[in-house]
Protein backbone atom coordinates (compact mmCIF):
# COMPACT_ATOMS: atom_id res chain seq x y z
CA UNK A 1 0.00 0.00 0.00
CA UNK A 2 2.80 2.32 0.94
CA UNK A 3 4.55 1.55 -2.37
CA UNK A 4 1.39 2.40 -4.34
CA UNK A 5 1.10 5.71 -2.51
CA UNK A 6 4.70 6.62 -3.31
CA UNK A 7 4.19 5.70 -6.97
CA UNK A 8 1.04 7.84 -7.06
CA UNK A 9 2.95 10.86 -5.66
CA UNK A 10 5.71 10.33 -8.24
CA UNK A 11 3.18 10.17 -11.09
CA UNK A 12 1.40 13.33 -9.94
CA UNK A 13 4.74 15.15 -9.63
CA UNK A 14 5.73 14.11 -13.17
CA UNK A 15 2.37 15.21 -14.53
CA UNK A 16 2.65 18.53 -12.69
CA UNK A 17 6.11 19.15 -14.09
CA UNK A 18 4.94 18.28 -17.59
CA UNK A 19 2.03 20.69 -17.25
CA UNK A 20 4.37 23.48 -16.12
CA UNK A 21 6.73 22.76 -19.01
CA UNK A 22 3.84 23.02 -21.46
CA UNK A 23 2.68 26.36 -20.04
CA UNK A 24 3.12 28.98 -22.72
CA UNK A 25 4.89 32.29 -22.22
CA UNK A 26 2.69 35.40 -21.85
CA UNK A 27 3.56 38.73 -23.46
CA UNK A 28 2.99 42.32 -22.36
CA UNK A 29 3.70 44.41 -25.46
CA UNK A 30 4.03 48.10 -24.50
CA UNK A 31 4.05 50.61 -27.33
CA UNK A 32 4.96 54.29 -26.83
CA UNK A 33 4.50 57.04 -29.39
CA UNK A 34 7.31 59.52 -30.16
CA UNK A 35 9.65 58.51 -27.31
CA UNK A 36 13.30 59.43 -27.72
CA UNK A 37 15.67 57.27 -25.63
CA UNK A 38 16.94 60.15 -23.52
CA UNK A 39 15.92 58.40 -20.30
CA UNK A 40 17.99 58.30 -17.12
CA UNK A 41 18.82 54.65 -17.76
CA UNK A 42 20.28 55.51 -21.19
CA UNK A 43 22.76 57.87 -19.54
CA UNK A 44 22.30 60.88 -21.78
CA UNK A 45 24.20 63.99 -20.64
CA UNK A 46 22.15 66.84 -19.17
CA UNK A 47 19.12 64.59 -19.09
CA UNK A 48 16.16 65.90 -17.13
CA UNK A 49 13.31 63.45 -17.76
CA UNK A 50 12.02 61.62 -14.70
CA UNK A 51 11.21 58.01 -15.64
CA UNK A 52 11.70 55.71 -12.60
CA UNK A 53 9.49 52.90 -13.89
CA UNK A 54 11.12 52.52 -17.28
CA UNK A 55 14.51 52.79 -15.59
CA UNK A 56 13.50 49.95 -13.24
CA UNK A 57 12.27 47.82 -16.15
CA UNK A 58 15.73 48.18 -17.72
CA UNK A 59 17.23 46.76 -14.50
CA UNK A 60 14.83 43.82 -14.79
CA UNK A 61 15.85 43.02 -18.35
CA UNK A 62 18.04 43.95 -21.31
CA UNK A 63 18.32 47.56 -22.47
CA UNK A 64 19.23 47.92 -26.15
CA UNK A 65 21.48 50.96 -26.51
CA UNK A 66 21.59 50.92 -30.32
CA UNK A 67 17.95 50.34 -31.24
CA UNK A 68 16.44 52.11 -34.25
CA UNK A 69 13.19 52.44 -36.11
CA UNK A 70 13.10 51.41 -39.76
CA UNK A 71 11.07 54.48 -40.66
CA UNK A 72 10.35 57.56 -38.53
CA UNK A 73 6.60 57.91 -39.03
CA UNK A 74 4.01 56.15 -36.91
CA UNK A 75 1.71 54.43 -39.42
CA UNK A 76 4.52 52.96 -41.48
CA UNK A 77 6.67 52.02 -38.49
CA UNK A 78 3.84 50.17 -36.76
CA UNK A 79 2.90 48.32 -39.94
CA UNK A 80 6.52 47.22 -40.27
CA UNK A 81 6.76 46.05 -36.64
CA UNK A 82 3.51 44.10 -36.76
CA UNK A 83 4.33 42.32 -40.04
CA UNK A 84 8.09 41.92 -39.68
CA UNK A 85 8.61 43.52 -43.11
CA UNK A 86 10.88 46.47 -43.88
CA UNK A 87 9.47 49.69 -45.37
CA UNK A 88 10.35 50.54 -48.97
CA UNK A 89 9.72 53.36 -51.41
CA UNK A 90 6.25 51.95 -52.21
CA UNK A 91 5.43 50.03 -49.01
CA UNK A 92 4.95 51.39 -45.49
CA UNK A 93 6.03 54.94 -46.27
CA UNK A 94 3.79 57.42 -44.45
CA UNK A 95 1.52 57.95 -41.43
CA UNK A 96 -1.60 56.77 -43.28
CA UNK A 97 -0.13 53.32 -44.00
CA UNK A 98 -2.36 50.30 -43.45
CA UNK A 99 -0.51 47.02 -43.15
CA UNK A 100 -3.55 45.15 -44.46
CA UNK A 101 -3.50 47.28 -47.63
CA UNK A 102 0.24 47.31 -48.33
CA UNK A 103 0.84 43.66 -47.38
CA UNK A 104 -2.50 41.79 -47.44
CA UNK A 105 -0.67 38.44 -47.62
CA UNK A 106 1.25 39.11 -44.39
CA UNK A 107 0.64 37.21 -41.17
CA UNK A 108 0.73 39.99 -38.57
CA UNK A 109 1.85 39.42 -35.00
CA UNK A 110 -1.68 39.38 -33.61
CA UNK A 111 -2.65 36.71 -36.16
CA UNK A 112 0.29 34.40 -35.58
CA UNK A 113 -0.22 34.55 -31.81
CA UNK A 114 -3.96 34.00 -32.17
CA UNK A 115 -3.38 30.97 -34.39
CA UNK A 116 -0.98 29.55 -31.82
CA UNK A 117 -3.51 29.51 -29.01
CA UNK A 118 -3.09 32.99 -27.53
CA UNK A 119 -5.69 35.50 -26.49
CA UNK A 120 -4.73 38.68 -28.35
CA UNK A 121 -5.72 42.01 -26.82
CA UNK A 122 -5.18 45.55 -28.14
CA UNK A 123 -5.79 48.59 -25.92
CA UNK A 124 -4.72 52.03 -27.11
CA UNK A 125 -2.56 52.68 -30.17
CA UNK A 126 -0.90 49.59 -31.64
CA UNK A 127 -1.59 49.83 -35.36
CA UNK A 128 -2.04 53.43 -36.52
CA UNK A 129 -5.52 52.51 -37.74
CA UNK A 130 -7.59 50.56 -35.21
CA UNK A 131 -9.31 48.47 -37.88
CA UNK A 132 -6.01 47.35 -39.44
CA UNK A 133 -5.96 43.52 -39.27
CA UNK A 134 -8.53 43.93 -36.48
CA UNK A 135 -10.04 40.48 -37.06
CA UNK A 136 -7.03 38.93 -35.32
CA UNK A 137 -7.64 40.59 -31.94
CA UNK A 138 -9.81 38.67 -29.49
CA UNK A 139 -10.41 41.91 -27.59
CA UNK A 140 -9.75 45.51 -28.58
CA UNK A 141 -10.86 49.00 -27.63
CA UNK A 142 -11.64 52.08 -29.68
CA UNK A 143 -8.02 53.15 -29.75
CA UNK A 144 -6.37 56.37 -28.63
CA UNK A 145 -7.63 59.93 -28.81
CA UNK A 146 -4.70 62.25 -29.46
CA UNK A 147 -6.83 65.34 -28.72
CA UNK A 148 -8.04 64.11 -25.35
CA UNK A 149 -8.28 67.57 -23.75
CA UNK A 150 -9.64 67.89 -20.21
CA UNK A 151 -9.26 71.63 -19.54
CA UNK A 152 -12.32 73.71 -20.51
CA UNK A 153 -9.99 76.51 -21.64
CA UNK A 154 -8.20 74.17 -24.04
CA UNK A 155 -11.48 72.89 -25.42
CA UNK A 156 -12.76 76.44 -25.94
CA UNK A 157 -9.54 77.49 -27.67
CA UNK A 158 -9.77 74.53 -30.05
CA UNK A 159 -13.46 75.11 -30.81
CA UNK A 160 -12.80 78.75 -31.73
CA UNK A 161 -9.52 78.19 -33.57
CA UNK A 162 -8.87 78.44 -37.27
CA UNK A 163 -8.60 75.30 -39.35
CA UNK A 164 -5.32 73.39 -39.46
CA UNK A 165 -4.26 70.61 -41.80
CA UNK A 166 -6.22 67.96 -39.88
CA UNK A 167 -9.09 70.04 -38.47
CA UNK A 168 -9.30 72.82 -35.88
CA UNK A 169 -5.97 73.93 -34.45
CA UNK A 170 -5.39 72.98 -30.83
CA UNK A 171 -3.20 73.96 -27.88
CA UNK A 172 0.16 72.19 -27.96
CA UNK A 173 0.37 71.84 -24.16
CA UNK A 174 -2.19 71.22 -21.40
CA UNK A 175 -1.81 70.43 -17.67
CA UNK A 176 -5.07 70.77 -15.70
CA UNK A 177 -5.77 69.58 -12.15
CA UNK A 178 -7.24 66.19 -13.07
CA UNK A 179 -6.65 62.59 -12.01
CA UNK A 180 -4.26 60.25 -13.77
CA UNK A 181 -7.24 58.43 -15.25
CA UNK A 182 -8.92 61.46 -16.83
CA UNK A 183 -6.88 61.02 -20.00
CA UNK A 184 -7.04 58.13 -22.43
CA UNK A 185 -3.64 56.75 -21.38
CA UNK A 186 -4.96 56.45 -17.82
CA UNK A 187 -8.17 54.81 -19.01
CA UNK A 188 -6.37 52.13 -21.02
CA UNK A 189 -4.08 51.43 -18.06
CA UNK A 190 -7.08 50.68 -15.85
CA UNK A 191 -8.61 48.61 -18.62
CA UNK A 192 -5.41 46.59 -19.09
CA UNK A 193 -5.11 45.97 -15.34
CA UNK A 194 -8.72 44.79 -15.24
CA UNK A 195 -7.98 42.47 -18.16
CA UNK A 196 -4.92 41.06 -16.40
CA UNK A 197 -7.14 40.15 -13.45
CA UNK A 198 -9.39 38.20 -15.83
CA UNK A 199 -6.41 36.52 -17.46
CA UNK A 200 -5.02 35.47 -14.08
CA UNK A 201 -7.61 32.70 -13.81
CA UNK A 202 -7.45 31.70 -17.47
CA UNK A 203 -5.51 28.75 -18.84
CA UNK A 204 -5.12 30.59 -22.15
CA UNK A 205 -1.79 32.44 -22.63
CA UNK A 206 -2.05 36.10 -23.60
CA UNK A 207 -0.49 38.62 -25.93
CA UNK A 208 -1.58 41.92 -24.35
CA UNK A 209 -0.65 44.97 -26.43
CA UNK A 210 -0.99 48.33 -24.65
CA UNK A 211 -0.31 51.41 -26.75
CA UNK A 212 0.36 54.74 -25.03
CA UNK A 213 -0.12 57.90 -27.08
CA UNK A 214 1.94 60.07 -24.71
CA UNK A 215 4.22 61.84 -25.45
CA UNK A 216 2.72 62.45 -28.91
CA UNK A 217 1.50 66.00 -29.54
CA UNK A 218 -0.43 67.60 -27.92
CA UNK A 219 1.67 67.30 -24.76
CA UNK A 220 -1.16 66.74 -22.26
CA UNK A 221 -0.99 65.38 -18.72
CA UNK A 222 -2.23 66.05 -15.17
CA UNK A 223 -0.66 69.11 -13.56
CA UNK A 224 1.38 67.17 -11.01
CA UNK A 225 3.61 65.89 -13.83
CA UNK A 226 4.09 69.39 -15.23
CA UNK A 227 5.05 70.54 -11.74
CA UNK A 228 7.83 67.93 -11.57
CA UNK A 229 9.90 70.22 -13.81
CA UNK A 230 11.27 73.73 -13.35
CA UNK A 231 11.24 75.71 -16.59
CA UNK A 232 14.38 77.56 -15.48
CA UNK A 233 16.27 74.27 -15.63
CA UNK A 234 14.99 73.24 -19.06
CA UNK A 235 17.81 73.24 -21.61
CA UNK A 236 17.00 73.96 -25.23
CA UNK A 237 18.83 72.47 -28.20
CA UNK A 238 22.10 74.14 -29.14
CA UNK A 239 22.09 72.94 -32.77
CA UNK A 240 18.87 74.52 -34.04
CA UNK A 241 20.47 75.09 -37.45
CA UNK A 242 20.72 73.07 -40.66
CA UNK A 243 23.84 70.87 -40.55
CA UNK A 244 26.83 72.62 -42.09
CA UNK A 245 27.47 71.60 -45.74
CA UNK A 246 24.31 69.46 -45.87
CA UNK A 247 22.05 69.51 -48.95
CA UNK A 248 18.85 71.53 -48.64
CA UNK A 249 16.76 68.41 -49.22
CA UNK A 250 17.95 67.20 -45.82
CA UNK A 251 15.70 69.90 -44.35
CA UNK A 252 13.07 70.14 -47.08
CA UNK A 253 12.35 66.41 -47.01
CA UNK A 254 11.44 66.67 -43.34
CA UNK A 255 8.67 69.25 -44.00
CA UNK A 256 10.21 71.75 -41.55
CA UNK A 257 8.04 70.54 -38.64
CA UNK A 258 4.87 71.13 -40.64
CA UNK A 259 2.68 69.01 -38.36
CA UNK A 260 3.38 71.21 -35.35
CA UNK A 261 3.20 74.46 -37.29
CA UNK A 262 -0.01 73.69 -39.17
CA UNK A 263 -2.04 72.11 -36.38
CA UNK A 264 -1.21 73.82 -33.09
CA UNK A 265 -1.95 77.28 -31.75
CA UNK A 266 0.74 79.86 -31.10
CA UNK A 267 3.37 78.21 -33.32
CA UNK A 268 5.00 80.44 -35.97
CA UNK A 269 4.67 79.27 -39.56
CA UNK A 270 8.43 79.28 -40.07
CA UNK A 271 11.74 80.03 -38.40
CA UNK A 272 13.40 78.88 -35.18
CA UNK A 273 11.07 78.91 -32.16
CA UNK A 274 11.97 81.44 -29.47
CA UNK A 275 13.43 80.33 -26.14
CA UNK A 276 10.24 80.61 -24.06
CA UNK A 277 8.11 78.64 -26.53
CA UNK A 278 10.87 76.04 -26.90
CA UNK A 279 11.07 75.60 -23.13
CA UNK A 280 7.30 75.28 -22.85
CA UNK A 281 7.20 72.54 -25.48
CA UNK A 282 10.14 70.68 -23.97
CA UNK A 283 8.63 70.85 -20.49
CA UNK A 284 5.33 69.61 -21.92
CA UNK A 285 7.12 66.72 -23.62
CA UNK A 286 9.04 65.78 -20.46
CA UNK A 287 5.91 65.98 -18.29
CA UNK A 288 3.99 63.85 -20.78
CA UNK A 289 6.76 61.23 -20.67
CA UNK A 290 6.67 61.19 -16.85
CA UNK A 291 2.89 60.72 -16.91
CA UNK A 292 3.19 57.82 -19.32
CA UNK A 293 5.99 56.35 -17.20
CA UNK A 294 3.71 56.39 -14.15
CA UNK A 295 1.02 54.50 -16.08
CA UNK A 296 3.57 51.90 -17.17
CA UNK A 297 4.60 51.51 -13.54
CA UNK A 298 1.02 50.79 -12.51
CA UNK A 299 0.64 48.25 -15.29
CA UNK A 300 3.81 46.35 -14.40
CA UNK A 301 3.04 46.50 -10.67
CA UNK A 302 -0.32 44.86 -11.39
CA UNK A 303 1.47 42.13 -13.30
CA UNK A 304 3.67 41.54 -10.24
CA UNK A 305 0.83 41.62 -7.74
CA UNK A 306 -1.16 39.10 -9.78
CA UNK A 307 1.90 36.81 -9.79
CA UNK A 308 1.96 36.75 -13.60
CA UNK A 309 5.41 38.32 -14.02
CA UNK A 310 7.43 35.10 -13.71
CA UNK A 311 5.83 33.76 -16.91
CA UNK A 312 5.46 37.03 -18.84
CA UNK A 313 7.88 38.71 -21.21
CA UNK A 314 7.63 42.51 -21.23
CA UNK A 315 8.64 44.33 -24.41
CA UNK A 316 8.76 48.14 -24.28
CA UNK A 317 9.36 50.01 -27.54
CA UNK A 318 8.68 53.29 -29.31
CA UNK A 319 7.71 53.56 -32.96
CA UNK A 320 10.39 56.24 -33.56
CA UNK A 321 12.28 59.01 -31.84
CA UNK A 322 11.50 62.72 -31.62
CA UNK A 323 13.19 66.10 -32.15
CA UNK A 324 13.04 68.82 -29.51
CA UNK A 325 14.49 71.64 -31.58
CA UNK A 326 17.58 69.89 -32.97
CA UNK A 327 18.20 71.18 -36.51
CA UNK A 328 15.04 73.25 -36.06
CA UNK A 329 12.82 70.14 -36.03
CA UNK A 330 9.95 69.47 -33.63
CA UNK A 331 8.75 66.15 -35.01
CA UNK A 332 10.22 62.83 -36.10
CA UNK A 333 9.94 62.73 -39.89
CA UNK A 334 13.62 62.40 -40.67
CA UNK A 335 16.61 60.09 -40.95
CA UNK A 336 18.66 62.18 -38.52
CA UNK A 337 19.63 60.46 -35.27
CA UNK A 338 17.01 62.04 -32.98
CA UNK A 339 14.24 60.83 -35.26
CA UNK A 340 15.39 57.24 -35.69
CA UNK A 341 17.01 56.13 -32.41
CA UNK A 342 14.51 54.60 -29.98
CA UNK A 343 14.34 53.00 -26.54
CA UNK A 344 13.91 49.21 -26.52
CA UNK A 345 13.78 47.16 -23.33
CA UNK A 346 12.99 43.44 -23.10
CA UNK A 347 12.47 41.71 -19.76
CA UNK A 348 12.08 37.98 -20.35
CA UNK A 349 11.95 35.25 -17.67
CA UNK A 350 15.01 33.02 -17.76
CA UNK A 351 17.20 35.51 -19.62
CA UNK A 352 19.77 38.08 -18.52
CA UNK A 353 18.80 41.01 -16.34
CA UNK A 354 20.28 44.44 -15.61
CA UNK A 355 22.38 44.38 -18.77
CA UNK A 356 22.88 46.88 -21.57
CA UNK A 357 23.38 45.50 -25.06
CA UNK A 358 25.30 47.43 -27.69
CA UNK A 359 24.36 45.22 -30.62
CA UNK A 360 22.62 47.24 -33.30
CA UNK A 361 18.92 46.45 -33.39
CA UNK A 362 15.97 47.35 -35.61
CA UNK A 363 12.26 47.31 -34.83
CA UNK A 364 11.82 44.75 -37.58
CA UNK A 365 13.69 42.35 -35.26
CA UNK A 366 10.85 42.30 -32.72
CA UNK A 367 8.62 39.93 -34.72
CA UNK A 368 11.07 37.00 -34.90
CA UNK A 369 12.18 37.63 -31.31
CA UNK A 370 8.67 37.20 -29.91
CA UNK A 371 8.09 34.15 -32.08
CA UNK A 372 11.22 32.45 -30.76
CA UNK A 373 10.39 33.28 -27.15
CA UNK A 374 6.91 31.81 -27.68
CA UNK A 375 8.18 28.72 -29.52
CA UNK A 376 6.40 29.81 -32.70
CA UNK A 377 7.92 29.30 -36.15
CA UNK A 378 7.81 32.70 -37.92
CA UNK A 379 6.88 33.13 -41.60
CA UNK A 380 9.73 32.69 -44.09
CA UNK A 381 9.33 36.16 -45.60
CA UNK A 382 10.02 38.28 -42.49
CA UNK A 383 13.06 40.57 -42.65
CA UNK A 384 14.27 40.81 -39.07
CA UNK A 385 16.55 38.66 -36.92
CA UNK A 386 15.68 37.24 -33.51
CA UNK A 387 17.23 39.06 -30.56
CA UNK A 388 17.15 35.95 -28.37
CA UNK A 389 20.95 35.44 -28.71
CA UNK A 390 21.40 38.93 -27.22
CA UNK A 391 18.91 38.16 -24.43
CA UNK A 392 21.04 35.13 -23.58
CA UNK A 393 24.32 37.05 -23.79
CA UNK A 394 24.09 40.85 -23.79
CA UNK A 395 27.61 41.18 -25.24
CA UNK A 396 26.62 39.27 -28.38
CA UNK A 397 26.75 41.49 -31.51
CA UNK A 398 23.85 40.42 -33.69
CA UNK A 399 24.29 43.36 -36.07
CA UNK A 400 26.85 46.11 -36.46
CA UNK A 401 24.70 48.44 -38.59
CA UNK A 402 21.07 49.31 -39.29
CA UNK A 403 19.05 50.61 -42.24
CA UNK A 404 16.33 53.23 -41.98
CA UNK A 405 14.48 55.47 -44.39
CA UNK A 406 11.98 58.31 -44.70
CA UNK A 407 10.46 59.56 -47.98
CA UNK A 408 13.40 60.17 -50.36
CA UNK A 409 16.02 59.54 -47.68
CA UNK A 410 17.76 56.21 -47.05
CA UNK A 411 20.30 55.88 -44.26
CA UNK A 412 22.76 53.34 -42.95
CA UNK A 413 24.14 53.83 -39.43
CA UNK A 414 26.93 52.02 -37.61
CA UNK A 415 29.27 52.87 -34.73
CA UNK A 416 31.42 55.07 -36.90
CA UNK A 417 29.28 56.84 -39.48
CA UNK A 418 25.78 57.75 -40.61
CA UNK A 419 25.41 57.90 -44.38
CA UNK A 420 22.28 59.11 -46.21
CA UNK A 421 21.26 59.30 -49.84
CA UNK A 422 18.15 61.06 -51.18
CA UNK A 423 16.54 59.42 -54.22
CA UNK A 424 13.57 60.28 -56.39
CA UNK A 425 12.52 58.31 -59.49
CA UNK A 426 15.96 56.80 -59.92
CA UNK A 427 17.85 60.07 -59.49
CA UNK A 428 20.05 60.84 -56.49
CA UNK A 429 19.21 64.32 -55.19
CA UNK A 430 21.96 64.56 -52.61
CA UNK A 431 23.85 62.73 -49.86
CA UNK A 432 25.26 63.26 -46.36
CA UNK A 433 27.97 61.66 -44.25
CA UNK A 434 28.44 62.23 -40.51
CA UNK A 435 31.21 61.06 -38.21
CA UNK A 436 29.31 59.46 -35.33
CA UNK A 437 32.39 59.29 -33.12
CA UNK A 438 33.15 63.02 -33.12
CA UNK A 439 29.82 64.47 -34.28
CA UNK A 440 26.91 62.42 -32.91
CA UNK A 441 24.71 65.54 -33.15
CA UNK A 442 25.21 65.36 -36.94
CA UNK A 443 26.12 69.02 -37.27
CA UNK A 444 28.78 68.86 -40.00
CA UNK A 445 28.24 66.94 -43.24
CA UNK A 446 31.65 65.61 -44.36
CA UNK A 447 30.47 64.00 -47.61
CA UNK A 448 32.25 66.62 -49.74
CA UNK A 449 35.64 66.13 -48.11
CA UNK A 450 38.25 64.40 -50.28
CA UNK A 451 39.09 61.82 -47.60
CA UNK A 452 35.42 60.76 -47.50
CA UNK A 453 35.37 59.43 -51.07
CA UNK A 454 36.18 55.81 -50.23
CA UNK A 455 33.76 55.81 -47.29
CA UNK A 456 30.96 57.07 -49.51
CA UNK A 457 31.63 54.38 -52.10
CA UNK A 458 31.52 51.73 -49.37
CA UNK A 459 28.29 52.93 -47.76
CA UNK A 460 26.65 53.71 -51.08
CA UNK A 461 27.10 50.09 -52.16
CA UNK A 462 25.53 48.92 -48.90
CA UNK A 463 22.56 51.23 -49.42
CA UNK A 464 22.11 50.00 -52.98
CA UNK A 465 22.08 46.38 -51.83
CA UNK A 466 19.48 47.15 -49.17
CA UNK A 467 17.42 49.26 -51.58
CA UNK A 468 17.32 46.41 -54.07
CA UNK A 469 16.34 44.01 -51.29
CA UNK A 470 13.49 46.04 -49.76
CA UNK A 471 12.02 46.92 -53.14
CA UNK A 472 11.43 43.24 -53.88
CA UNK A 473 8.05 41.71 -53.10
CA UNK A 474 8.75 39.64 -49.94
CA UNK A 475 6.04 37.15 -50.91
CA UNK A 476 7.36 36.18 -54.37
CA UNK A 477 9.39 33.25 -53.02
CA UNK A 478 6.36 31.86 -51.20
CA UNK A 479 4.17 32.19 -54.30
CA UNK A 480 6.78 30.40 -56.39
CA UNK A 481 7.03 27.62 -53.80
CA UNK A 482 3.28 27.17 -53.84
CA UNK A 483 3.28 26.94 -57.63
CA UNK A 484 6.10 24.44 -57.65
CA UNK A 485 4.16 22.18 -55.32
Could you characterize what this model shows?
- The relative contact order is 0.17.
- The protein has helices at about 1-20, 50-60, 75-85, 100, 110-115, 150-160, 185-200, 225, 250, 260-265, 275-305, 335-340, 365-375, 390, 455-470, 475-485; strands spanning about 25-30, 60-70, 120-125, 140, 165, 165-170, 175, 205-210, 220, 310-320, 340, 345, 355-360, 400-405, 410-415, 415-425, 425-435.
- α7 runs parallel beside α11 (about 275-305).
- The protein is α/β, with parallel strands linked by helices.
- About 35% of the residues lie in helices and about 20% in strands.
- The strands form 4 sheets. Strands 1, 2, 3, 4, 8, 10, 11, 12 and 13 form a 9-stranded mixed beta sheet that branches. Strands 14-15-16-17 form a 4-stranded antiparallel beta sheet, covered by helices on one side. A two-stranded antiparallel ribbon has the order 5-6.
- The termini are far apart.
